[in-house]
Amino acid sequence: MPLVPMKQVLAEARKGRYGVGAYNVNNMEQIQALMQGASETGTPIILQASKGALEYSKMIYLKHLIQAAVEDNPDLPVVCHLDHGPDLEVCKQAIALGFTSVMIDGSIDYAQ
C-alpha cells in the first residue's frame, strides 16, 4: 500500500470510532519502532516530520526513511505528514517530495 492521504485515514477512523497515533520522527530507529508497533496491532499510523526535526535533518532524508517503512509494511496505511511547516516554501517542498499531508503553522511570527 502506498502512502495514504490524512483525510482518508481520519475518515476511516471517524467511521470506525477510533483514534490514529501521530508521531514526530527524527531517525530510522524511531520509525522502525513505531512501525513495529503499528504492524503488531494492525493500525494505521501518521509519521510526522516536525519543525524541530527539520532543523537538523533534510526533509528528503525523512521522506525516504518513511518510504522505506511503507515498503517494509505494504499492508499498513501510513501517512507522511509535515507537522507545523514554518512557511509556504517548506510546505511546497513537502508536497513536491510526496508528503500526503501538510500543515503550515501561520501563528509563527518570523519577522521578529
Describe, in short, the structure shown:
The protein is of the alpha/beta class. Helices cover 47% and strands 18% of the residues. It is globular.
Notes on the protein architecture:
With 112 residues, the chain is an alpha/beta fold. The chain has one domain (6-45, 55-104). Helix content is 47%, strand content 18%. The protein is built from five helices and four strands. The protein has helices at residues 6-16, 28-41, 51-54, 59-72, 88-97, and strands at 22-24, 45-49, 78-85, 101-104. It has a four-stranded parallel sheet with strand order 1-2-3-4. Helix 2 packs parallel to helix 4 (59-72). The longest helix is centred in the N-terminal third of the chain and has 14 residues, at 28-41. The protein is globular and about 40 Å long. The protein starts with 5 loop residues before the first helix and ends in an 8-residue tail after the last strand.
SSE topology:
Layout: H1 6-16, E1 22-24, H2 28-41, E2 45-49, H3 51-54, H4 59-72, E3 78-85, H5 88-97, E4 101-104
Parallel strand pairs: 1-2, 2-3, 3-4
Q: End-to-end span in angstroms?
A: 44 Å
Structural class: alpha/beta
Please state the average pLDDT score: 93
Topology pattern, helix = H, strand = E: HEHEHHEHE
| Helix content bin | 40-55%
% residues in beta strands: 15-25%
Shape: globular
Query: Got a strand count?
Result: 4
Biggest sheet details: 4 strands, parallel
Give, in spatial order, the strands making up the sheet with the most strands: 1-2-3-4
Number of domains: 1
Compute the CA-based radius of gyration: 14 Å
Contiguous uncertain segments of 5+ residues: none
Our count of helices gives 5
